[in-house]
Amino acid sequence: MSPIEKQAETVKPMPISKKPSKATEANIKQNVPSKKGVYELISFGEVKYVGSSSDLQERLLTHHRERKPNKYRYKTVGFLKSKAKVEREHYDRHVEKHGQPPEWNDKRP
Hints:
By secondary structure, the protein is α+β, with helices and mostly antiparallel strands. 39% of the residues lie in helices and 21% in strands.
């Protein structure tokens, strides 16, 4: 087994399994709920930021205006789950898989 195959076996899957969506204001308003959850911002095929919010739609609209990502994907978090904990897990899995944090994240959540 190659080192890459071994790494793929040990890295847990990312919590967000949706395909990325095009980051436009209309798309975000139409498809993203105003619920709590975690999200990724993607630019030119790379995850640039992992975050969480109590209002995914509003937060993604803010990022769209300020950072201008090409794509995004998100996952809502259930009532009993902590969005901060899910964000930390997602961030840590990204670092484990890619060897470094997303470029736009200043610190570990």
